[in-house]
Design a protein that fits this description.
CATH class of the largest domain: Alpha Beta
Mean pLDDT: 95
Strand content: 25-35%
Number of strands: 14
Order of helices and strands: EHHEEEEEHEHEHEHHEEEHEHE
CATH superfamily of the largest domain: Gcn5-related N-acetyltransferase (GNAT)
CATH architecture of the largest domain: 3-Layer(aba) Sandwich
Structural class: alpha+beta
Shape: elongated
CATH topology of the largest domain: Aminopeptidase
């Protein structure tokens, strides 16, 4: 049997890359070249790789180089990366990891950092690649805790929210003061998002221009849900539809002067209802770190407590690291 080899992605490989991504077990929108194209040329030094056995494509690895070009990161300019494959056997996974290490060693790289999607993103749950990396002595740089809502209860999901969440949601639905719907008011959403981030001395990951660029490149992967009060948008969430299994709440915001109306409860209710109705299995509601703490792994207990009101569970977002 031929050995697995790696080569750098070339523009003529684009259609093959995209077609393969659609067949992977653990790929996401963040592995898509269409998604990565939203970045202005030159912003990152992209260095994408492809795994082959002979002519057969076995895996794709989006990423880029940093520092002096000898430190590889995957992802670059995205949330998740690492190797995307079909539902492969462990022996194949180990061969792929060995081939990757041989490649980076031959090219005189110093370090590798890989952030794979959490396990819930795999269509068929498998951690063959992750175990192969650990067996070959990768270590961890960081672990973040994310929270995700399991949609296994179907239309009965609300029964599994906690008492406070159920009470607030029933009150909102009964009174009818707030409405929620899919929206294309991205500019209005972004204005509120900027105000939210400023309150916490932060800025959004994406500029408004980035959001509009994504809407041009991957419109099928974005969904905006907005809450309205007297016709005015006061809260909402921008969803990234990462693959057929998981939708990710990338941004959730509200106008704080309307906080007493509890619009975020309605946002989370509608996200869960919408995702359930559209066949998703999980809603990833994002990382739950205290961004002001000295230790980047410090959990935000208040944020976690709030997320757990919606029957969410902690999942790890881990950075695998290898130093030659």
């Amino acid at each position: 049997m031929q050995k697995i080899t790696l080569h750098k992605y070339l523009p003529e490989n684009r259609d093959e890359w995209q077609k393969f991504l659609a067949q992977t077990n653990n790929g996401t929108m963040f592995h898509s070249l269409d998604f990565l194209d939203y970045h202005p040329k030159g912003k990152f030094d992209f260095y994408h790789l492809m795994f082959r056995r002979g002519d057969e494509l076995l895996g794709i690895l989006p990423g880029g180089v940093k520092e002096d070009g000898k430190v590889f990161w995957s992802p670059v300019g995205a949330s998740y990366g690492s190797i995307a494959t079909k539902d492969i056997r462990f022996e194949t996974a180990l061969e792929m990891v060995d081939a990757m290490l041989d490649y980076f060693r031959t090219e005189n790289f110093r370090e590798i950092f890989l952030i794979p999607p959490p396990m819930i993103y795999s269509l068929n749950v498998s951690q063959h690649i992750e175990y192969a990396m650990l067996y070959r002595k990768f270590d961890f740089e960081l672990h973040y805790i994310s929270h995700a809502i399991d949609l296994k209860y179907g239309k009965d999901f609300l029964e599994h929210f906690d008492k406070t969440a159920r009470k607030n949601i029933h009150k909102i639905l009964r009174e009818g003061k707030l409405s929620v719907r899919e929206s294309d008011e991205y500019d209005e959403f972004y204005e509120i998002l900027l105000n939210n981030k400023a309150k916490h001395n932060a800025t959004p990951t994406h500029s408004l221009e980035d959001i509009h660029r994504l809407l041009e490149l991957v419109p099928q992967n974005l969904k905006l849900l907005m809450v309205y009060y007297d016709g005015k948008p006061i809260a909402g969430s921008l969803l990234f539809l990462c693959n057929s299994k998981v939708t990710l709440c990338f941004y959730t915001m509200l106008l704080y002067e309307y906080e007493e109306l509890k619009p975020v409860y309605l946002v989370n209710y509608e996200i869960t209802r919408w995702a359930t109705e559209h066949g998703y299995e999980w809603v990833d509601i994002g990382v739950s770190q205290d961004t002001h703490a000295e230790d980047p792994m410090t959990p935000s207990i208040d944020l976690i407590n709030f997320k757990e009101r919606f029957n969410s569970r902690g999942i790890l977002r881990s950075t695998f690291h290898y130093k030659f």
